[in-house]
Design goal:
226 residues; archaeoglobus fulgidus dsm 4304 fold; alpha+beta; 27% strand; globular; 9-stranded mixed sheet
Length: 226
């Protein structure tokens, strides 16, 4: 069951100002979630290039960055986009705030990544349609969501459940640190999503290498734009 939460008065005011109907967006998410495929679409042992996707906020700007790495974890390409946010942060609707910048960044890529790892959730979402799933549907590429915090579901013995359904894996990748949460976004199974992320961990980094590279790149760009 979805848990409704009261929104801050400032957020409600912004939603009214821009004519944003959250109930309509919920319906859209449920509809699009039916298109999500949780079966492996390719042989992931043969993947040549993997991209990390991360986003940061600087004032009212959204900074989206995508870093593409080859199978040796060497950087092939880096692209970023900075644009004004026209949607407030509302839990469960992050993609509507960040995806315009991410998609603009994706359009700038010259290389063709086989797999995208997105900072955020895939199906680990009240309507099974987090930002990694939304991005995957738009670009029709295999996507994995990797989140640093558990915003939804109940963790038990390395799995995350919601309504008795396993939606994600909880993986401790760094001694003494909290786990990261891995959920399939689109065109990949939970098992393969977890296995791939596990193989892409390079100590001392907590995040899989493509996502860590994107995180460092976005932070660098953010610092330069401040």
């Amino acid at each position: 069951m979805e848990k409704e939460e009261s929104l801050p008065e400032k957020v409600v005011s912004i939603l009214k100002k821009f004519g944003i109907d959250l109930e309509a967006l919920k319906s859209e998410q449920r509809k699009l979630a039916k298109q999500v495929k949780l079966k492996d679409s390719v042989d992931f042992s043969d993947v040549k290039m993997i991209a990390g996707v991360d986003v940061a906020s600087v004032g009212k700007d959204i900074i989206a960055g995508i870093v593409v790495l080859n199978s040796d974890m060497e950087t092939v390409e880096e692209k970023f986009v900075a644009r004004k946010a026209d949607f407030p942060y509302v839990s469960g609707f992050r993609s509507y705030r960040e995806l315009p910048a991410i998609m603009e960044c994706f359009q700038k890529l010259e290389s063709d990544a086989d797999l995208f790892i997105v900072e955020g959730n895939g199906i680990l979402h009240p309507r099974r349609f987090g930002i990694a799933s939304h991005f995957g549907i738009l670009v029709q590429k295999p996507t994995i969501g990797v989140a640093k915090n558990l915003m939804f579901g109940d963790e038990k013995e390395g799995k995350v459940y919601a309504d008795s359904e396993v939606l994600a894996s909880a993986l401790v990748t760094k001694e003494g640190s909290n786990p990261i949460y891995i959920s399939p976004g689109h065109m990949i199974s939970l098992k393969n999503a977890t296995d791939i992320v596990r193989k892409l961990i390079r100590p001392p980094h907590k995040l899989p290498e493509p996502l860590d590279a994107a995180h460092r790149y976005v932070n660098k760009i953010s610092d330069e734009l401040k």
